Every structure is written in C-alpha cells, then in structure tokens.
Amino acid sequence: MPNIYNFSVSEFTFTEAITDAVYAGNMVSGGTMTIFADNGYTVSAIDFSANNPLPGQFSSVTFADSGTAATVGNTVIVTFVFSTLFEMSAGLTTINLPISGHGRPITEKRTIGYSIKINDDTVANLNGSTVVKVGGVIQTPTTSAEGIETVTLTGTADISTNTLIGNLETTADNGFVFLNSPNIVLQNLPAGSVFLQLESVERRDGEDDVHIFKHKIGFRSNVDITTSAGAEVFVQYRGFAAKSTTKEITRIVSGNPEISISGETRTIQVIGSPGAEFDLSVTKASDNSSIMDVNLVNADVLHEPAGLIKGINKTLANSGQNFVTYNFTQEFPKQSSATTYHINVTPKSPTILNSNITQRMPQVILNQHINPTITLVASGFLGSSGNPANIVYTGRPNKKPAEIRNNKKVVEFFQINYQLTHSGAINKAGTITWSSTGTSSWTNSAFNSASTTPANHGNHIEIINIVHTASGATTASLTADVIVKKFGTKDVTMTIDLNSFFTV
C-alpha cells in the first residue's frame, strides 16, 4: 500500500531500567531520528512539525535539514529532548512522537533569490528577546541607534515550494511569560511570502504559560526579494508577569506493579506542590469497589464508573519545601485468583496532574497474579511405553529464578529425559528445534508473542542440548536441558508431538 505522505522515519532505540529517570541523571535525555523521502520525492524541515501540545514525555522537538531543503538526498533530522520528569515504568516499550508533514514530488525547479531583514524592535517589544538561527547556528544581529536588532537572511528558493530560511526563538525574560505567540509584520514583501510555523514551546517548571516559542521561518515567492527594495520583517511580542506557581500533583509512587497473590502491605505516596488538593481512592477493578481502610477514608469521592465511593480528600500542607509527600498504608488482601487494583487520583481545581501522570483514572494499575505453571507435554507416541509424563514447574509471576532463589521450590534448570519403547523398530523422523522467539517443535514457545493459542503469557524458557536418538531398535530417547529465564503472568503448556519425530 503506498505511503500517502511520501516519507518514512527512523526509530530511536534505547534501553533503560524501570525507575530510571531524566531528573535522576541515569537515563538518556533525548535523541535524534531521521526523516527520509520516498523515491520520487524530497523532504524539507519547513514542511514538518510535532503536534502541539507534545506528549508528556517530551519537552521539545526540532527539525533541521541535513543538506539543502527540497533536494534529492536531503534528510530531515528530528531532535527531541525528554521532559525532566520522565521516568521509565514497567510495560513502557514504545513512545510515540506524533509528527506531521509530507514529502514533495521532484519537479523541474526554478529558483529566485531573497535577501530579507528580520527585525526585533527591542524598545517596542517588551520583556523578552529573540534569536535567529540558520542551520542551527545563531546569527549575530546588528543593532541600530533606535534599538532595532537586525539579522539579514539571504539565499535562493524554489518557487514551487515553501523554503525554510531560518528559525526564530522568542524567549520571555525571567519572571515573565507569553500569553500569545509572537507574530510578524511584513514590509515591502508580498502578503504571506514570509511566515512563521510553530515548531515547539517550552514552559518553566510549575508554570502553565509559555516562556519560549520556537518557530520555523518559512518563505515562498515567485519573484526575487531583496533588501534593496526594503524587504523587512518585524517580529512583535510581549511578555507578561508570570502567575504564581501552579499547584500540581507531580508523582504517584506505589512500588512494584506486581502484588503477591498472598497479599501485601504497601506504602502509597502522592507527591506534589504545597497546597495541591486531590481526591484518592483504591479500588478493585472487577467491581470498582473501594478496598481502603474505613479508618483512613474521610470523604465520598467521585469514581467515574461507580459514582461516589469511600476515599481520601487531601490538601498537601505547606512545609516550606518545593514538594510535599503524603503517605498512607494500603492493605492488599490474599487472593485465590488473579485480581487487578486501581489507584485513582482526581485533582481539585485549580490543582492539576503533571503531564507525566495519566490524566484519566486509573493513574496506577496493580496486578495480583496467581503463581504461573510451566508444563511440558509429550504427545502422539504410538509405542508400548505410551506418552512420557508431563513435566510441571511452578514459579512466581514476572520473576526470574535468580530473583527468588530463597524459594527452594522454584527451579532455574531441569532436564527432559523421555525414554521410549516399542515392540517394533523405532526410527527418527525430522529434526527437533527450539525457539523462544519464533516457531519451534514445542507449541507456545515464543515468550514475547500473544498470538499463540493459548498465549504464552511471558513464560520464557530455553531448551538446549537436544539429543534425539532412534536407530531402528525397540528403544529411543529424547533428552534436553531446560533453562528457566523468567516466569510469566499465567500458566502455559508447551507440547511436542513425538509422532512427528519418531516413526514405528
């Protein structure tokens, strides 16, 4: 199926441990990806932007041409910076960065020249400043006696497409923010020939309003534009005094997302700015009932599916610190079957949830899985000995054997030893193979696939040293070593059909 947008984007891959965080300095703070044009098309940085607002994991995204825009071989470099509050969590395997744009068909081009002054009237514009970049390099302005800072942009442009001629960053002074995006006024230029395209915004910690606007400076014309004809652009902006810091909930800490089937006592933490107010409930997902201690709850709080239920209303006290922590103890009962719990936090206006927190309940999901069982089954043998007995081992949900070595009932290594007999001659048929990521001689072997029926559920084993013997005698054997890498969240049965590998 053709790509209607006529470009592709490379992936950025990185490996982090759960709880690694940008603010902690132990994870990658950003990276780059590359936009490639499809055959018969070109790409230009001016034609691409990131959706606004950005997903909570990102603080900024910029686009730059690797070469000359709209030429064959040019690529667009996408540079992104993660939010300082971004923390890795269990199950987070993919982060999507929504990019808008398109490639343009290669056509016969006709170019025109341009020379345009970009002006910042520092007397008329208040409480901020501008920087003009070309190819990522800051351009040094000239300053007139009247306080007008000027950068002159020159070059050539294709008349058939928009051309990126520079980038404009507008920054509010300390203690000030922008309530509106800057705009431009053209002088001695065709209407719309120079335009701003929003690339990204930045906010100071704790503030809703923007303190940095980043724009692409676009240009399109079918006639030459020169400063000799007085071609000028005036940037207009105004900074306003920043509001008081917005009250917000910045983090919810609940520990490991897996709860022991035997039950646990957890300390739940809600971290936020002084004065932040919120409702909180802990519910059983199956029926949306509260499981909070009746001696702890102090209010009827709104739970979207269930209406009013028992919960906590809390306002974080002003302790003189930037952030305040509220702790409470939550009991999770012993269960005989898999159970899911939700921690729901609803901010009370004007308090908000930080962008790193899911905005709709539940904010936290905790799972209580039964102890999973890995069962190896041998079927289909036609011999007098019958099918070998099932090999069964039980572990702990989402645990590696190394994590639970104190539990002597959990194995890390075991052996397969199938000894087969028949009144007639037994011969080998086929080759026995193993794969934990694809198709093998055992069913449900791929631990990272949900397509098997029933699913593997994340049970990861490796079978090595497979020895498959039968030479026309009345006995045969299948031996192998099994390494348990990780138990999953539910039972799995892996079956080998011996009839496919032994003939009688």
Description:
This protein has 504 residues and is mostly beta strands. The protein is 0% helix and 45% strand. The chain contains no helices and 38 strands. The chain has strands at residues 7-9, 30-37, 41-42, 49-50, 58-65, 76-82, 99-100, 104-105, 111-121, 128-134, 137-138, 142-143, 148-158, 163-172, 176-178, 183-187, 194-202, 212-219, 232-236, 239-241, 248-253, 264-272, 277-284, 289-290, 299-303, 307-315, 324-332, 339-347, 352-353, 364-368, 373-379, 391-394, 413-421, 427-428, 460-469, 475-486, 492-497, 502-503. Strand 12 and strand 13 (148-158) form a beta hairpin.
Instruction: Give the low-confidence spans.
Output: none
Helix content: under 10%
Backbone shape:
flat
Query: What is the rounded Rg?
Result: 32 Å
Estimate nothing, just give the exact number of structural domains: 4
Total of DSSP H or I helical runs spanning 4+ residues: 0
Strands, count: 38
**Average of pLDDT:** 90
| N- and C-termini, Cα separation | 50 Å
Structural category is mainly beta
Largest sheet: 6 strands, antiparallel
What order do the helices and strands come in, and which of them pair?
Elements: E1 7-9, E2 30-37, E3 41-42, E4 49-50, E5 58-65, E6 76-82, E7 99-100, E8 104-105, E9 111-121, E10 128-134, E11 137-138, E12 142-143, E13 148-158, E14 163-172, E15 176-178, E16 183-187, E17 194-202, E18 212-219, E19 232-236, E20 239-241, E21 248-253, E22 264-272, E23 277-284, E24 289-290, E25 299-303, E26 307-315, E27 324-332, E28 339-347, E29 352-353, E30 364-368, E31 373-379, E32 391-394, E33 413-421, E34 427-428, E35 460-469, E36 475-486, E37 492-497, E38 502-503
Parallel strand pairs: 9-19, 21-29, 31-37
Antiparallel strand pairs: 1-2, 2-6, 3-8, 4-7, 5-6, 9-13, 10-11, 10-14, 12-13, 14-18, 15-20, 16-19, 17-18, 21-22, 22-27, 23-24, 23-26, 23-28, 25-26, 28-30, 31-32, 33-36, 34-38, 35-36
